[in-house]
User: Fold these one by one.
Assistant:
Number 1:
Amino acid sequence: MQRQSYRFPHDKGSSAPLRQDSDTSDVQASFVMKCGGSTLAALPEAFFADLAQLQADGVRPVIVHGGGPAISDNLEKLGIPTEFVHGLRRTTEEVLDVVEMVLAGTINKLIVRRIQSAGGKALGLSGSDGSLIQAEPVANAAEVGLVGDVVRVEADIVAGVLSMGYMPVIAPLGVDAQGQRYNINADTAAGAVASFVGARRMIVVTDVPGILKTVDGVKAALPSVTFAEIEDMIASGEIYGGMIPKVRAAMKCLHGNVEEVVIVDGSEERVLSRLLSGEAIGTTIRR
Ligand SMILES: Nc1ncnc2c1ncn2[C@@H]1O[C@H](COP(=O)(O)OP(=O)(O)O)[C@@H](O)[C@H]1O
Ligand SMILES: CC(=O)N[C@@H](CCC(=O)OP(=O)(O)O)C(=O)O
């Protein structure tokens, strides 16, 4: 069971306001989209054209991205050993140097440029900027090192960027009050951003067309899954590896304003606009 380390601004009894009174208070993220490292290189121009068109039509997406494979490639090139413990990269200060360089640098700027090339307006941020993602060590820090859980996301910053007409593109790094930086799993970070900005929907863009299950010998994406089915599929090994942090982040963020999480394949044609126009694509998880 994951720790519930952040409180949900929209839950009853929460003392944390979504954002302070400000002239951005009416600016609401339309959805939070997590783009996985598994799929980033393969995302076609058409994906970014679709995203830019949505923005031009007044939709306000917020992007949180991964980059696990690129981090591993760079660590390997530098001869720095790397390993995952329960899906989290064991992270030292030396590893963090590379994580920060790749996520906040190479990958973040690549996504910003691709959105801009498609005619959109994007602004890259890491979780350290403006203390956007405030973190604390994960419960198993003794095993995994400088990996963070999200305590709070500065929703005002996201609203401010949206109010300027830019799409925030967020790298999943965190920082604490002492200035210590943390490596945060991108699915975890995206779920926390969705909770704190009060988006109705989180879209998880990955390299598979949803949560796959073999039924009567046929492997296909489930149109929807309940929390109980997810737990059963994790226990049986039908959900494993990189799908585990996605479903865990989904179940954790489905509180307050977040009503649904959809897992989709980014290479599917016009996947975002089709989803937004109500088409059933991928796997949907609801409360
Ligand atoms: N039941 C499942 N359905 C679909 N994919 C699954 C399932 N269980 C595990 N996976 C794995 O999860 C992977 C997606 O996670 P990951 O590679 O971490 O992607 P990303 O980089 O997008 O976060 C899939 O490519 C697949 O190998
Ligand atoms: C703590 C931890 O494991 N952090 C991840 C952050 C990147 C990530 O999550 O990227 P994907 O979405 O592409 O997997 C890592 O170091 O790989």
Number 2:
Amino acid sequence: MSEYAIEMKNITKTFPGVVANDKVTLQVRKQEIHALLGENGAGKSTLMSILFGSYIADSGEILLDGEPVEIKNPNVATSLGIGMVHQHFKLVQNFTVTENIVLGMEPVKGRVLDLKSASKRVAELSKQYGLQVDPDALIEDISVGQQQRVEILKTLYRNANIIIFDEPTAVLTPQEIDELMEILKALRAEGKTIVLITHKLREIKEVSDRCTVLRRGTYIGTVNVSDVSEQELAEMMVGRAVKFEIEKPEKLPGEVMLSLQHLEVKDENGAVKIKDLNLDIHDGEIVGVAGVDGNGQSELLGAITGLLPLSGGSIILDGEHIEQLSIRERIEKGLGYIPEDRRKYGVVGEFSIAENSAIKSYYKSPFRKKFGILDFEAMKKEAEHLIDQFDIRSAEGPVTKAGSLSGGNQQKVIVAREISLSPKVLVVAQPTRGLDVGAIEYIRKRIIDERMKGRAILLVSLELDEIMNLCDRIATISKGSIVAVNKQHEVTEREIGMMMAGSHKEAQA
Ligand SMILES: Nc1ncnc2c1ncn2[C@@H]1O[C@H](COP(=O)(O)OP(=O)(O)OP(=O)(O)O)[C@@H](O)[C@H]1O
């Protein structure tokens, strides 16, 4: 019997142009929560994909409970008791919870699919591990947090002893994050071994026993989490001191640059999602929209950018009505947008970084030459500049396909493109989701630089500390309306939290 549930020794994996893992070691003790920390592109997902059999290492060794194993594909991983909860769920939307869980390993009684006993087993597992979810609900009807529980149940149903979580909190609301932390502790108490990829140092401190740090594909070290501070973890990971609080020089706001007046948005079933929403954003200021997920934030973003039609109200940008304009016309008028879902609206995976950087301006100088021919050299040059400025880690520079970048580096491509267009109004949704602390520090600085240049910035984020850190004024949204607008220094995080939950006391004050 070994002390370790998992040992990965000298793991090396290369992709064209990049060594994603360079002789990496990972030793995970039985029944511990082991965090895996590293900058964007450090090689965390690659290492876990090797453990789960999605990638084969070029060299190195894997031992489970002291026994060497060869994990040729995910089926082998499953049979060895390894489960993985991916960041992007692999669920069938119009199937029930139970159907999704048994998919691929249906229990058969006689020759009939025995969903009844499967459903019973699912209910037992939910109870044992504190994973509340209705076994008969359809996936499309349950929240993101509950869908994640289905993914966890899937691994438990297949008798996983080792469960890998790839940035599980990136998609969750603060409330769901607290619940997940409890679930992780329950899994550990029931004897499971957990590997947790996360950028959130607070989460590492809260639930993890030990933490392994990677930097640029190499192993830096493993520490007992209780022996180190968040600051020390950050330094180990980035290789330099990181500032958590950023400096925001005083700036007096100027004219109203974006004015939202009596906005109303309905969904396809006619339900009102945004109701009489009013908000002004001046140049030289950052206004944050704080709220519990699902209170109209997505609809607000869709309405401003032109992805969703308005059923009432006006949007005025620098004195001009834009609510009737197309998406591209709004961009032309000076609207920039960093979207929340980078996979849907942000980058095109098949395109290179250069092409992605020019995606909103390819039809203009300097990217378009005479006779409408695209100037790929100009695109590459611009991309090189952005890669350098925003520290985008790629294998082959501007020609690297965006789809092969790590998640955090895809995010940097989008932020770099939108900021570099220097729009009059920059609408920013969850700009630092999935980014490492070093990258967060940089992106926040760039957003503040844009403010200093006199841009008007609207920031929508579920992370209150991001809003408190960056914004000059904070608008709290609840049930599709703005219930209060406060100056940043006049409210506390707690008060905003209460207003988000529907207390209007401060709103009236
Ligand atoms: N399928 C692939 N093809 C080419 N390169 C890849 C592929 N997958 C990963 N890479 C490269 O390997 C390196 C490590 O990427 P990986 O996704 O493991 O990083 P990560 O630590 O998980 O990053 P993040 O925190 O941003 O998710 C990166 O340089 C990435 O571009």
